[in-house]
Amino acid sequence: MSNERPTAEELRQGITVEIVQGDENVQAEDTEPIIGEVATIYGDEPEGPQVELKSGVVGHVQSIVTDE
């Protein structure tokens, strides 16, 4: 399992991802990731692809959540 962030090209509407909101420190240990389905993909950024979830939360994708 790699901890490489996905690129915007790898993302699709409706897939479940883990994001952090832009104003949070991505490296912070106590940051609670937000998990939800992608509604809109805005594009790649250094912090990870920026997306809006169906819940309306905007943030940077840290990983794709797989059903295992």
Short description:
The protein has strands at 16-20, 34-43, 50-53, 58-64. It has 68 residues and is an all-beta fold.
Give a written overview of the molecule.
InterPro entries: DUF2196. It holds the Pfam family DUF2196. This protein has 68 residues and is mainly beta. It has one domain. It is 0% helix and 38% strand. The protein is built from no helices and four strands. It has strands spanning 16-20, 34-43, 50-53, 58-64. Strands 1-2-3-4 form a four-stranded antiparallel β-barrel. Strand 3 (50-53) and strand 4 form a beta hairpin.
What about the largest sheet?
Answer: 4 strands, antiparallel, barrel
The total of helices stands at 0
By secondary-structure content and strand pairing, the structural class works out as mainly beta
- How many angstroms does the end-to-end distance come to? 13 Å
Strand percentage:
35-45%
Percentage of residues in helical conformation: under 10%
Q: Whole-number average pLDDT?
A: 86
- Taking pLDDT < 50 over at least 5 consecutive residues as the criterion, the unreliable ranges are none
Order of helices and strands: EEEE
